[in-house]
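To assess whether the prediction recovers the assembly geometry, we first specified each molecular entity separately, as shown.
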Amino acid sequence: MKATGPIPLGFLGNEGELAIGGMTASALVDQAGDTPLFVYSIDHLRQRVADLRAAMPQRLAIHYAMKANPYPALLSLMNGLVDGFDVASGGELELALQAGVDAAKISFAGPGKRDRELQRAIALGVTLNCESEGEADRALRIGAELGLTPRIAIRVNPSFDLKGSGMKMGGGAKQFGVDAERVPALARHLIAQGADWRGFHIYAGSQALSADAIIAMQAQTLALVVDLTDAIGQSPARVNLGGGFGIPYFPGDVPVDIGVVGHALTEAFDGLPGSLASTDFCVELGRYLVGEAGVYLTRIVDRKVSHGEVFLITDGGLHHQLAASGNFGTVIRRNYPVAIATRYEAEPEEVASIVGCLCTPLDKLSDQAHLPHADVGDLVAIFCAGAYGASASPANFLGQGPAKEMLV
Ligand SMILES: *Cc1c(COP(=O)(O)O)cnc(C)c1O
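The predicted structure of the complete assembly is given in tokenized form:
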């Protein structure tokens, strides 16, 4: 038997089944018309943002990094909850606009922005988080061609990273951002060329659960911002402090203590020099805001025994849940939180592996979990499915196609 990760708070049973937004898993699937199905909980999303705001200093704006989940209905909801959106492609920019996001609230990061993406963003007044000197010069040229002043921030490649981070995105040679020592010269160039100087974007990593690691990263980020501001001689309009707040996916994972992070950040803001007195600060979070709000429901289509081990074979798989299968940036495969959604209140009585329908041994959703007895027709729930699920999995693999999605 292998342990499974912690089921996020707030997912309760109703009539013996997992219920989300007041509907049982069976009723949700009936309404959607089919499985597999991603369900995103409105209550969970609202509560998460409210709790985060309560913990953080008022001065800190909260942005949504929409690559975690670009489902249109979820974007519309998030538009009413957060202060800004961070997009990382022209496609995401269009999705944000379609969801009603004001272009002035959008910033656009990501290496490899094409000229037509820069044109569209500049025409809309989106803030560009420029990833290189070359990109900054293209933005200046395109702004001149359009007769518009581009709004430009610089994404800084810091010399530090987020400790304990699942995915390191700062420190050393990187394809992201401009090396910190070259940032002052580039900023002065942008200002001299007449760009609307928006400040810094400093992203040092992702999926950290340690408050201490996040506090240390934020302190290093603020110290770097103070130095860069001194060297440039002009205050940044905004500083994006990155994000990196993680969620518990695996056995033993403990949630980030955001209260402790918020206290430390309040103190750090109080200690800032006058040069940053009118600067706005934000964090950009993806999985922390949406990851635990999502559940993936898939139906058991076969039950078999091989060499004494039980396999529950579902109509879903890694083509929607690459991360849960352990094939999205993890070294050692561990089990996400999982349950038999249609026997949610039953006691575990057997060890079974939940697999997908793809012809690859990688397609494992849960390995040797302790579960209630489940049969063909039962629904399986994989939790923590709200981020990097539907949009970060190879949906067309083996001709399967996308899952359904629903916000309740
Ligand atoms: C991926 C990414 C995020 C979101 O990361 P999460 O771990 O989902 O919070 C934020 N900012 C940048 C620059 C990213 O690349």
